[in-house]
Each structure stands twice: as structure tokens, then as C-alpha cells.
Design a protein that fits this description.
With 650 residues, the chain is mainly α. The chain contains 23 helices and 4 strands. 72% of the residues lie in helices and 2% in strands. The strands form 2 sheets. It has a two-stranded antiparallel ribbon.
Length: 650
């Protein structure tokens, strides 16, 4: 039994309770305590690098909790705790003038423990327990500022998390019934010996729903563009960098343990990934809100990762490039968004604005922040010598490799040629929207300089925040320039979990055949920026100044047109119908009993006149009551799951 695994999962949760008590007496001490907890957790994760740690807690609800620290899981735990430490340090300055800081730090540390519980889990039972705790605790991070937009986004986040989690739970029940286990390795053996997987595909899809929802995979992505902009910047960084990866982890377990080398499963994941990749990039191009653009970018980058996961299934035993691309883009995206979201946090911390027209030109004279943000831009756009280029190259080459396999087998390559160009086009859109952000904030002059007045007293960020952001930014070119000493080592460390082996030959990242993909994407990005963003998405206002406009049609919203009417109107109506039916049957039974037992001819039961009863006959008038009641019910489900989990653990 390795107690370091228990330390990683439960120490942050204990630290949250201690920190909350400290915060009631001394807020500054609480801040430093949170830094110490996250630093200790990071060092604990580092101590397990290169080891194979196992922990089992058999007394938990008869099934037991199981943890395993191997290559990929330790990598994810180390990455998560490092990012948590960096954002916690930055939080001290960011939240200096915020209220409810004690609440934020408490749930932030609770979420850290739950997230590490997911990443280090050895079976789906353990994964699900901590996955649901994480959903509830991170909900508080989304709603932290308690504005109308924050409440709405948090409702969406909670609805997707709870409903997705319940669907996943249904899949796990069926999986356990069919396989007799939820252990990852035992499931891999079971599925390997399974001759007909047809019935297991349905189980896999159900299980995928909750994980795909958390990752932001289409069509369950609706929470992501809404939650990131309204959450505080440190929380946005955690949502984008780490919490989405908990969903990716579940997708990886399904794809590399249960459906390993399964072409049909891989094709489904690939279709979802490509759709998410393109949709996120298009949304980001149209957005004129700094953090929303970064959120839509996260959606697109999750699509890149899902595309790589899908290619693993299609390539089968030849999936080395796709597996390495999956691992590296997962890590690279986390590091990139850490830099970009904290930089956006500095902007908001000073101006309390995110609209590009209002913050335009604010960073022109801020050389350090300009450099930091530029490192993130160059990394995420896949410019050679930065980290994003390495992982995107591997994913692109995996698609090209499969095209060659199809051609050699005499099969049509049309579909995958289209997928390759969608990949390059999405990369081009990334160049376009990140260029828009950098030019708007750090290069253009603001025609209305009065919008730039915010916190003008003192420096725009203190020395501690400057160091944190600078370290985060410098990591990006270092690992991009030294891929063989950094990224290749990391990929090989994680390949065993993915059921893959190292490539048969070394990948030469900086030869023309690999550079060509990046060059094509950059050229597409330049064309989109100059011909579409500058010409179509910018117009002259009444004073003759060009301003950014959001031309995305308001009616074109899956959330507003499908999900919210279905969940907040349809489900309450259906539930109300069955409630009325059950109430009528109960009333009828009571009436019969009164007449039979008490010989009461007037046995009819008259329902009370209250607002809930009247709502049955006047649904539209009480529509808001249903909305509030449904959101409250979801919250209570989350609270109930958390209380039940704590009770069982005790």
C-alpha cells in the first residue's frame, strides 16, 4: 500500500477544512496555507515519478476504492498539482478585493483532491465517486461571482454534470452486470476475450456521456463557453487546463482499455472530435470577449485531443504517433491555457472588462505581459519551436499515416483527406483568432481611451504574479525547442497506459514534410484574419472608428433552442404530468377507503389551493417556478451525492 497516493487525494481535502478555519481568523495566513497545500501536493506527485504505486481501501462500501500511480496517471497528477499551485499563487493578488474568498479556497482545494482521485483511480467505481464530487465542488467555482451570468452558467454546468453523470452511472451498472468488474485492467482482459462487442458498445456510449460532457465534447459542450468567461480567471484556468482533462481521462480509459484498437469505436470518437475541433474554432473566431474566445479555443483543442484518440482506434497496432500526439497535446494544452487564462486574469484584474473593444490597446506599453501572452499565442497556434507544434504535428502525421494505409490497401482516402484538411483549417482558425486577441489587446490603439481606466494605482501586477506568469510562459518555448529531451520522454513514459509502443523510427519534427502542415495552417490563419476578421467582423461605428462586432446569430444556440427548453420546460412538464397522475390515483384510493371504511359518501379529496397545484393548470404563468425548482433539484442531487459519499467513506 502506497500512502503517497492517499496523501495526494485526501490531503488537499483536509487542507481545505483547515484553510477554511484559518481564513476565519487570518485571511493572509489562509492564502499562504493554500499555497503550501498545493505545493506539498505537487511535490508528492513528483516523488512518484518513475514508480508504480498501488493503493486499495477495501472497506469502502463493500467494493473498495482502488488507486494506481503509473506513467499517465502520475503525469496527470503532477500536471494538475503544478497548475493548481501556480493558479493558487496568482489567486492571492487576483482575489485581493473579492468577497467570499474563504469559500473559493475551500472548494478549490476540495476540487483538487477530487480531481486527483479521478486521475489516480484504478477502476470506474473510484473514478465515478470522485468525478461526481469534483462536479459539485467545481460548480461553486463557476458561480463564485454570483452575477446573473454566473448563475446562469453555473446552472448549465450543473445540469450537464449531473445528468451526464447519471447517464454514466447507468452505463457503469450495466458494465458491472456484464463484466463482473469495473477494474480497468480486468475490463481490458474481459473485452479482449469478448467475441461480440455489439452489446458492449451501448454500455460504452452511456459511460462516455458523462466524461464527454466534462471534457466539452460536442454536443455536450454547451457549458464550456458559458462557464469560463464568468468564473474568476484562476478558476477558468483550472476548468480549462485540468477539469476538462478529467473527462478526457475517462475517454482514454474507454478507448485504450475497453475498446483498444477498435476501429468502429475510434471512428465514432473521431467524428465527435473533428466536429468539436471545427465548431470550437469557428465560435472563437466570432467571439469578441477575451475569456470567451479562450474558452471556445479550449473547446477546439479538446477536439484536437479527441481526434487523436479516435485515430488510435483506427490505426490499431500502428497507433504510436496518435498515442504520443494524444498525450502531448493533453499536456501542452494545459500548460498553454495556464499562461493564457492567467494573462487574461491580469487584464480583468485591472479593468474589470473583457470586451475587446473596451480593453483594446491596454497592453501596448506592458512589455512583460505582452511577452507572456505572445508565448501562449505562439504555442497554441502551432508555430515551430513552441510546444503546441510538436503535439499537433504528431496528430497530423497520424492522419496522414492512416491515409497511406488506406491507399496501400486500395481503399478510398477521400474522407480522411477531408479530415486532414479540416484539421489544418482548424489550426488556421486558431492562428486567426489568437492573432485577433493579441493585436487587439497589445498592438492596436484604442479610439476610446476612457474605456481603459481601471485600477490605475500601482503596477498592473505584483512581483509574485509576474514570476508565476513568466515561469508558465517560458516553459512553452523550452519544451518546444527541446522536444527529444522533454516531450518524447514524457510520451514514452505514458505509452504503456495507452496500449502503444514507441514509433518504429524517430520523428524528425523540423524537416519540411512536418513543417509543411504548420505552414499551411499559418497561411490559412493569415487569410482568415485579414480577409474575414478585419473585413467582415470589424465595422465602422458612428465616429468612423473600426470596432469588433459579434456576427454569430443569436438564434443559433443549441443551449437556448434545445437543451434549456427540454430540461427546464419539457422535463418539468413531463414530471408534473406524472405527479398529477400519481396524485389523482392517490386521491382516488383515499376516497374509496373513506367510503368503504367510514361509510362517507362525500369521500372525494379536494387538493389544497397552493401555487404548486395551480401550476398544473397554468404552466406558463408559473414557468419561472419550474426553472428554479429544476435548478434547485439538480443542486440537491449534487449535495445528496456528496453527503452520501462522505457518509460511506466515514
Amino acid at each position: 500500500m502506497n500512502m503517497t497516493l492517499a496523501f495526494l487525494v485526501f490531503f488537499p481535502m483536509i487542507g481545505a477544512l483547515i484553510g477554511y478555519l484559518i481564513g476565519r481568523k487570518n485571511k493572509s495566513a489562509r492564502d499562504y496555507w493554500a499555497m503550501a497545500v498545493t505545493l506539498a501536493t505537487f511535490l508528492g506527485a513528483l516523488s512518484l515519478v518513475g514508480k508504480d504505486a498501488v493503493l486499495s481501501i477495501p472497506a469502502f462500501c463493500g467494493i473498495g476504492l482502488s488507486f494506481h500511480g503509473d506513467g499517465l496517471r502520475i503525469t496527470l497528477a503532477t500536471l494538475a498539482s503544478f497548475i493548481w499551485f501556480m493558479t493558487t499563487v496568482f489567486s492571492k493578488e487576483y482575489f485581493a478585493h473579492y468577497r467570499n474568498r474563504n469559500r473559493y479556497y475551500f472548494f478549490m482545494l476540495m476540487t483538487l483532491g477530487a480531481t486527483l482521485g479521478v486521475f489516480l483511480s484504478a477502476d470506474f467505481y473510484t473514478t465515478f465517486i470522485f468525478f461526481e464530487v469534483m462536479s459539485f465542488t467545481s460548480f461553486v467555482l463557476v458561480i463564485q461571482e454570483e452575477t446573473d451570468h454566473a448563475v446562469r452558467a453555473a446552472q448549465t454546468y450543473l445540469a450537464v454534470a449531473v445528468i451526464g453523470g447519471l447517464v454514466t452511472l447507468m452505463g457503469l451498472f450495466m458494465m458491472y452486470q456484464m463484466a463482473g468488474t469495473l477494474n480497468f485492467d480486468e475490463l481490458a482482459i474481459f473485452c479482449h476475450d469478448l467475441e461480440d462487442k455489439k452489446d458492449f458498445y451501448f454500455v460504452g456510449v452511456l459511460t462516455l456521456v458523462g466524461f464527454g460532457a466534462k471534457a466539452g465534447l460536442f454536443p455536450l459542450h454547451i457549458w464550456l463557453p458559458e462557464a469560463h468567461p464568468v468564473a474568476p480567471a484562476p478558476a477558468s484556468a483550472l476548468l480549462s487546463c485540468i477539469l476538462t482533462k478529467s473527462g478526457v481521462f475517462g475517454m482514454l480509459v474507454l478507448s485504450t482499455k475497453i475498446f483498444i484498437h477498435d476501429a468502429q469505436w475510434g471512428m465514432m470518437i473521431l467524428a465527435l472530435g473533428v466536429t468539436t475541433m471545427v465548431l470550437g474554432a469557428v465560435l472563437a473566431v466570432f467571439s469578441i470577449n477575451l475569456k470567451r474566445t479562450l474558452a471556445c479555443s479550449s473547446l477546439s483543442q479538446i477536439g484536437f485531443i479527441a481526434t487523436a484518440i479516435g485515430m488510435q482506434g483506427l490505426l490499431g497496432h500502428h497507433n504510436a504517433l496518435a498515442a504520443e500526439g494524444t498525450i502531448l497535446h493533453l499536456a501542452n494544452h494545459s500548460l498553454l491555457k495556464l499562461t493564457l487564462f492567467m494573462s487574461a486574469g491580469v487584464v480583468y484584474m485591472n479593468l474589470h472588462k473583457l470586451d475587446l473593444n473596451e480593453i483594446r490597446g491596454w497592453g501596448r506599453d506592458k512589455k512583460l505581459l505582452k511577452f507572456i501572452f505572445l508565448m501562449g499565442v505562439l504555442g497554441i497556434t502551432g508555430v515551430p519551436l513552441w510546444n503546441g507544434y510538436i503535439s499537433k504535428t504528431l496528430i497530423h502525421e497520424s492522419i496522414v499515416e492512416y491515409i497511406h494505409i488506406l491507399a496501400d490497401a486500395g481503399q478510398s482516402t477521400t474522407l480522411f483527406t477531408i479530415i486532414e484538411w479540416l484539421f489544418l483549417f482548424s489550426g488556421g482558425l486558431t492562428v486567426a483568432y489568437m492573432t485577433k486577441l493579441f493585436v487587439a489587446v497589445f498592438m492596436e490603439k484604442n479610439p476610446y481611451p476612457e474605456t481603459l481606466h481601471g485600477h490605475d494605482h500601482g503596477p498592473y501586477m505584483n512581483k509574485l504574479s509576474s514570476v508565476v506568469l513568466l515561469i508558465s510562459a517560458l516553459i512553452l518555448p523550452v519544451i518546444g525547442m527541446l522536444p527529444y529531451n522533454t516531450q518524447n520522454v514524457l510520451a514514452e513514459f505514458c505509452l504503456d497506459f495507452m496500449g502503444a509502443h514507441p514509433p518504429d523510427h524517430a520523428v524528425h519534427y523540423f524537416i519540411w514534410i512536418n513543417l509543411k502542415g504548420a505552414v499551411i495552417s499559418i497561411a490559412i490563419g493569415a487569410a482568415v484574419y485579414f480577409l474575414f476578421i478585419r473585413q467582415v467582423l470589424m465595422v465602422k461605428d458612428a465616429n468612423g472608428n473600426k470596432v469588433y462586432v459579434d456576427r454569430w446569430p443569436e438564434w443559433f444556440s443549441i443551449e437556448n433552442k434545445i437543451y434549456r427548453p427540454l430540461l427546464l420546460s419539457g422535463l418539468p412538464f413531463v414530471g408534473g404530468f406524472f405527479a398529477r397522475l400519481a396524485g389523482s390515483l392517490t386521491d382516488g384510493l383515499i376516497s374509496i377507503l373513506r367510503m368503504l371504511i367510514f361509510n362517507d359518501d362525500n369521500g372525494r379529496v379536494v387538493p389544497p389551493e397552493d401555487k404548486y397545484f395551480s401550476a398544473y393548470t397554468d404552466f406558463e404563468a408559473d414557468h419561472e417556478m419550474y426553472r428554479e425548482g429544476f435548478a434547485t433539484s439538480l443542486l440537491l442531487i449534487g449535495i445528496g451525492l456528496t453527503i452520501a459519499t462522505v457518509y460511506i467513506m466515514i
